[in-house]
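note to self — DONT lose this again. spent like an hour looking for the file last time. sequence + predicted structure for the chain T wanted, 357 res
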Amino acid sequence: MSVSDIDLIRAWKQVLTLSKLEAGQTVTVLTGADTNAQTLRCATAAASDLGARVNRLELPPVNAEKALSRDALAYLGTTPLTGNQAAIAALKASDLVLDLMTLLFSPEQHEILKTGTKILLAVEPPEILCRIVPTEADRERVLRATDRIRQAREMVISSEGGTELRCPLGEFPAIAEYGFVDEPGRWDHWPSGFALTWPNEGGTQGRIVLDRGAILLPMKCYVSEPIEIVIRDGYARSITGGLHAELLSEYMASFDDPEAYAMSHIGWGLQPRAHWSTLAQYNREATIGMDARAFEGNFLFSLGPNNEAGGTRTTACHIDIPMRHCTVKLDGEATVINGVVQDPEGRARAAAPRGLA
């Protein structure tokens, strides 16, 4: 069901307050051809009502001749900021950038963040934004999980479907995504709610079996039969299975880039208001799939770049795959068991009655 402007403005005010927006600060709203008009209207109203000076920067789309779909994450090549010094200067001069067009994996974004500017990405439909308004409790829970990742030296992922994967840790930072930007130079995504890191370069070994119900992004489809991905020395060496394995293989091969097959970020979802089933309710161009990435208890892994974490690997191909029913261990201690997060909140929800008796 659609949401009213009143509800969306209220949601924006909560997020902006959590992001410590102060009266007199400069907010630049970054928009593009596909920016949701209601999201733009309500973000502008909320920031203005909180006393900010609000500007809008409209940038044209790029990469249309290369991308295989309209999804903003389907091709990570140049961005509208590439070589655009005037736009970069405007964003650097802002206290907060509200990214309503999807600016990711670019050196320009890192350059802007280094000046202390905060960037909040919000491109999901308004009803998803309102359902997953972040809270301080979200932040505390994600930070606890991130601290555990930061202290660990190995993540092991397994499943009854056959996944057995070992990922050495320590070369890259642990990242917390909880849906708002409360520190200078912070980037986050509303909605979100997960903890992640990147495995050491060339160290991941094992195999991943995508069982029925795993989700391929940006294709935005549920796997209907198992796919086996063999990982050796940090790269996917083979992708086998049925139709969805062929679709994934052909899509990745179209980039003609061996770095597309490298292990990228790994972690698990911690957002109880996100749902595995949501993607089935939308057409593919209406959402980028943040419910899939954040639903509580998933194991989310990626293939592709690591420059977001300070690495040197860039590639236009970026694959995110949330999986259900996995067990995740850090240095032998389980943080997720068969899709149930092993913290007080996750265990309490798992014990509560659900569905029909």
